[in-house]
Amino acid sequence: xxxxxxxxxxxxxxxxxxxxxxxxxxxxxxxxxxxxxxxxxxxxxxxxxxxxxxxxxxxxxxxxxxxxxxxxxxxxxxxxxxxxxxxxxxxxxxxxxxxxxxxxxxxxxxxxxxxxxxxxxxxxxxxxxxxxxxxxxxxxxxxxxxxxxxxxxxxxxxxxxxxxxxxxxxxxxxxxxxxxxxxxxxxxxxxxxxxxxxxxxxxxxxxxxxxxxxxxxxxxxxxx
Length: 224
Description:
Elements: E1 4-8, H1 12-24, E2 28-32, H2 35-44, E3 48-54, H3 62-72, E4 77-81, H4 86-94, E5 99-102, H5 107-121, E6 129-131, E7 134-137, E8 142-145, E9 148-149, H6 154-165, E10 171-172, H7 173-180, H8 190-203, E11 210-213, E12 217-220
Parallel strand pairs: 1-2, 1-3, 3-4, 4-5
Antiparallel strand pairs: 6-7, 7-8, 8-9, 10-12, 11-12
């Protein structure tokens, strides 16, 4: 069953409370007492679907762990922070975190944020895809191009998945925004263009499969 969550928190009482809360919510839990332990536990359990990281931990802090995890995986990461200020939240997000919860927090809020994050990333519910030299393994959030691993942000990964899943179909910018950025996104549709540009660059020669249809949108054009 794909429901294992890693909790990295150095304060034993908080860690036990969080673990108990998630267990009651139906999740399987792996506990880590510091940053180094978190990385080791993550390697020991390849079926982890989400990581909950405290910011202030010994050996390696949450930001460092987040950065190292993101270098090898696109697993969803939720940061727990007692730090005050928008800058601390921004730091976590720019290091690769997908969301954050500020301490103190209620059990119901934590579970709701985790469930929302899992729905958003749809871990465990999507298929693997292979087209034109691009291999996308959804469960591992892994992309390779001609056998070489390509690191992507969560949004780039979701965008590539959506394009490949709908190969040879024209997708408007509004469709892409609604699906990849969610229907409640309020912003400029140039966001799509910017992410497409970055995605093409990361895909190298395979970037040519992403075709632009002027004033309409994009499609992943591949017969493989």
